[in-house]
Write a structure and sequence with these properties.
237 residues; alpha/beta; 7-stranded mixed β-sheet; 9 helices
């Protein structure tokens, strides 16, 4: 049976299953060597866009520019939006280096009902990290409806590639908290629970992660605010 293709937003690509290969590490090391001297940093901005996430999506659309503002134009922060929604739909945008482009992409996307597809997000991040040196992955969600061992396996691979996952949870789902904390541990990243009504809190966290993505722990240490210090305390030295 021929599957009907799903239209994509301009500049987006479908996230596909990643096939295992014994040469994955070799390809990554080669790509890392080629991009190690590239200025700025890369950050994967991943969001759960299922129906319950609409309020968070709207807030993220409004404040995503803060990631670029704190990094500064000279730093060359590049952000890639990855989101999932509906029935098996998971998309990734092109890499962008200005807030207007990211905001334009985000405002064209509406949330749709469906289950989580975090494994696809992590598979995509692993694939991208074999092409580019990625400093951090930000994930915002409120649920985890997949086998936790699969998620942790993919997170471990990200950790080996130096990609730190910053897992931000809304709500009180215990399964999600357990999985998000384990992902943070495996990637030497950080976990934080978000207030569902605090846009300021999310803005400060995105600023802090952007500082880390462009300047590492030193930049995060120099970044003012409680959010930066809370994240710094969790990052392994």
């Amino acid at each position: 049976m021929v599957k009907k293709s799903v239209p994509m937003e301009r500049g987006e690509k479908a996230v596909a299953e990643e096939k295992s290969s014994s040469s994955d590490i070799a390809r990554f090391l080669k790509a890392a060597e080629q991009t190690a001297s590239t200025p700025g940093g890369r950050l994967v901005f991943a969001l759960d866009a299922t129906m319950s996430r609409q309020p968070t999506w709207d807030r993220a659309c409004q404040i995503q520019a803060s990631m670029f503002q704190v990094a500064g134009a000279a730093s060359g922060l590049a952000v890639q939006l990855v989101y999932f929604r509906g029935f098996g739909e998971c998309r990734a945008s092109k890499w962008v280096t200005n807030p207007a482009s990211l905001a334009q992409m985000m405002t064209r996307i509406d949330c749709r009902g469906g289950t989580t597809q975090i494994s696809k997000v992590f598979m995509h991040a692993n694939k991208e990290s074999s092409k580019h040196r990625i400093a951090a992955l930000v994930y915002i969600g409120d649920a985890m409806e997949e086998p936790v061992d699969r998620i942790c396996d993919l997170a471990g691979k990200l950790g080996l590639k130096g990609v730190k996952a910053f897992m931000f949870q809304e709500g009180m789902d215990r399964d999600a908290e357990h999985a998000f904390r384990e992902v943070a541990r495996l990637t030497n990243g950080a976990y934080m629970r978000l207030s569902s009504s605090s846009a300021k809190e999310l803005e400060e966290l995105l600023k802090a992660v952007a500082a880390f993505a462009t300047g590492g722990k030193t930049a995060l240490e120099n970044h003012r605010g409680k959010s930066a210090q809370a994240l710094l305390e969790q990052l392994k030295r």
